[in-house]
Amino acid sequence: MAEHISRVHAGNYGVYGVRKVWRRLHGEGIEVACCVVARLMRELGLDGARRGKTIRTTVRDDGHERAADQPGGSAPALRHDPARFADRRSARSTGPCGASTPGIQRRPSGDPTAGP
């Protein structure tokens, strides 16, 4: 099967990807699953042409010294205060059809218990 995949890929200037190689093989009467074509193309190092520029955002430098860990172990996890948000998360309001839907409770603008 690898010979057929290599032949079809090379016969089309090396620009055919998995889907086109798979369709071409089916057109020639060779029944094979698309996932098999993908696996064999990966193993053979074949890939299709990509449009545009391939973006690589990060290139790791193995020779660079890593930053030291926090003294005394890892930093404490930050989390919100559940008491501060409990009253608004459990509030329910009435939807457009009169049905009760989850929502945020509205408070008057001078209410000292209103959150930020």
From TrEMBL:
Basic and acidic residues compositional bias, start-end: 58-68, 78-90
Region (Disordered): 49-116
Source species: Streptosporangium pseudovulgare
One of the Pfam families matching this protein, by short name: HTH_21
Top-level taxonomic group: Bacteria
Domain HTH-like: 3-53
Protein name as catalogued: HTH-like domain-containing protein
InterPro entries, alphabetized: HTH-like_dom
